């Protein structure tokens, strides 16, 4: 299962605990996470479902490539981190 | 006569509840600290709303039903998925207009319980009939073919900054767009027309100066007792309408300048209005570094320049379009500046008391009773 972690700066606004979820892509990972934590969606994605301009997503240490449709593939033990970018503050 | 109550002040670092204690106004609460609050509203029943712009994490709406002590997160107006075949470009820059709520820029109630209107950047108008528990995009306006004439001004994308709900009929709604002019619906938002004949843009070529759909009306204000009287602080001047916004007359003799962002009108007397002028658009600070409020009592024939209690040397405060308000009593006014100065007047602007010099930059304020 892939692990999904959020910056503590987001935890200030809404509960977003780390979770282990079976998913093939980042899109699937987030959708499954939002089923349990629906309040997190609008903090991470914009109205079009794309990653917010100033949110940074890392998949196994690399920046997410597809910030629009989140089609990046995951390994069974992938680590996904959602941070706020240093821009936009 | 009503007595002015609290002030709700939205700033770059949170929202402040300012209370009236006899003749003194003091900050009673500092809430939602750390995040920008771009719009505030107090409803008749005491419900408070605050719109946040979190930079990284987007726009959020918070609601308080206990005077600002606690706030709950509420749904944010959101744009529908953009169809792939739709081309939606800012006409000046040629860049795509995002179908994504970037800022809540207008927030108004109406005489109907639970009805709210929300204007955003980019220029979306949203409607709620359940006190903000859900929102519907006003598609008649979003899909209006003339929206393609709207352009961004100070912000990169056009936005709706003023929503005037007619006190005689809540289905009559007027909005102000920067830069997109003055629009009106007579059927609760089902259809819209652009009015404001006579508005003049000196930032456009002469043959386009009177193009209604490109006017940068910074702020609209409507007289509660005479709703056909509307004042407009425009990018390059002050205008007044006496026919509900169909036609506008330019007022050229305002002192010390005609440039500014906010305007408020007396709730009873449509001839009396207040402004906080700045030195022309290229500079955007008070003329000669002296912070003043200007007031007309005769429909713009003449202006009083009000200085008592305001800094008259080396003041570089700018007051944003939502940074000036008048209480329903018609005598109490307040304004807050980009420098974090907050002033209140209890005598129609003749004199001002400073509430704080040290607030974060002030985006908006409202009296809440």
Description:
The complex is a heterodimer of chains A (89) and B (369). Chain A is of the alpha+beta class. Helix content of chain A is 21%, strand content 24%. Chain A has helices at residues 8-11, 26-36, 41-44, and strands spanning 2-6, 19-21, 55-59, 62-63, 79-84. In chain A, a hairpin with a 2-residue loop joins β3 and β4 (62-63). The longest helix of chain A has 11 residues, at 26-36. The termini of chain A are far apart. Chain B is built from 2 helices and 28 strands. Chain B has one domain: 7 Propeller (Methylamine Dehydrogenase, Chain H). In chain B, a hairpin with a 7-residue loop joins β14 (181-185) and β15. Chain B is mainly beta and 369 residues long. The chains are: A alpha+beta (89), B mainly beta (369). At the A-B interface, α3 of A face loops of B.
In short:
The complex is a heterodimer of chains A (89) and B (369). Chain A is α+β, with helices and mostly antiparallel strands and 89 residues long. Chain A is built from three helices and five strands.
CATH class of chain A: Alpha Beta
Distance between the termini of chain B: 13 Å
* Sequence stretches where pLDDT stays below 50 over 5 or more residues of chain A: none
Estimated share of beta-strand residues of chain B: 35-45%
Helix and strand element order of chain A: EHEHHEEE
Mean of pLDDT of chain A: 95
Work out the radius of gyration of chain B: 19 Å
User: In CATH, what is the homologous superfamily of chain A?
Assistant: Beta-grasp domain
Fraction of residues of chain B in helices?
Answer: under 10%
- Subunit arrangement of the protein: heterodimer
Specify the biggest β-sheet of chain B: 4 strands, antiparallel
């Amino acid at each position: 299962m892939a692990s999904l972690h959020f910056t503590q700066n987001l935890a200030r606004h809404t509960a977003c605990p780390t979770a282990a979820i079976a998913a093939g892509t980042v899109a699937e990972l987030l959708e499954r996470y939002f089923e349990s934590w629906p309040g997190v969606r609008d903090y991470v994605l914009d109205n079009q479902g794309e990653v917010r301009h100033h949110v940074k997503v890392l998949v196994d240490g690399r920046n997410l490539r597809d910030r629009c449709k989140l089609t990046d593939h995951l390994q069974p033990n992938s680590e996904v981190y959602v941070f706020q970018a240093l821009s936009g503050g | 006569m009503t007595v002015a109550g609290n002030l709700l002040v939205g700033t770059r670092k949170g929202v402040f509840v300012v209370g009236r204690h006899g003749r003194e106004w003091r900050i009673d609460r500092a809430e939602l600290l750390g995040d920008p609050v771009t719009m505030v509203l107090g409803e008749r029943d005491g419900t408070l709303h605050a719109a946040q712009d979190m930079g990284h994490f987007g726009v959020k709406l918070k609601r308080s039903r206990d005077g600002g002590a606690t706030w709950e997160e509420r749904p944010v107006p959101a744009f529908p998925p953009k169809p792939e075949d739709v081309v939606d470009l800012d006409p000046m820059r040629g860049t795509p207009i995002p179908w994504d709520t970037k800022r809540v820029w207008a927030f108004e109630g109406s005489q109907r319980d639970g009805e709210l209107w929300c204007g955003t950047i980019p220029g979306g108008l949203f409607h709620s009939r359940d006190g903000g528990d859900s929102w519907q995009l006003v598609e008649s306006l979003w899909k209006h073919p003339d929206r393609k004439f709207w352009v961004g001004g100070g912000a990169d994308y056009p936005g709706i900054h003023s929503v005037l709900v007619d006190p005689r009929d809540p289905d009559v709604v007027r909005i102000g767009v920067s830069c997109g002019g003055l629009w009106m619906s007579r059927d609760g938002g089902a259809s819209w027309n652009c009015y404001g004949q006579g508005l003049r843009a000196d930032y456009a070529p002469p043959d386009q100066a009177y193009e209604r759909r490109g006017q940068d009306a910074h702020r609209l204000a409507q007289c509660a007792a005479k709703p056909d009287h509307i004042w407009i602080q425009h990018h390059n001047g002050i205008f007044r309408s006496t026919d509900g916004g169909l036609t506008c007359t330019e007022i050229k003799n305002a002192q010390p300048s005609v440039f500014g962002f906010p305007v408020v009108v007396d709730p009873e007397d449509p001839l009396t209005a207040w402004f906080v002028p700045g030195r022309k658009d290229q500079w955007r600070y008070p003329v000669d570094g002296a912070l003043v409020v200007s007031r007309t009592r005769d429909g713009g024939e003449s202006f009083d320049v009000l200085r008592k209690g305001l800094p008259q040397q080396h003041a570089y405060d700018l007051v944003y379009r939502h940074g000036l308000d008048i209480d329903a009593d018609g005598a109490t006014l307040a304004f807050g500046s980009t420098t974090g100065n907050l002033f209140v007047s209890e005598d129609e602007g003749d004199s001002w008391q400073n509430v704080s010099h040290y607030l974060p930059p002030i985006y908006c304020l409202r009296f809440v009773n």
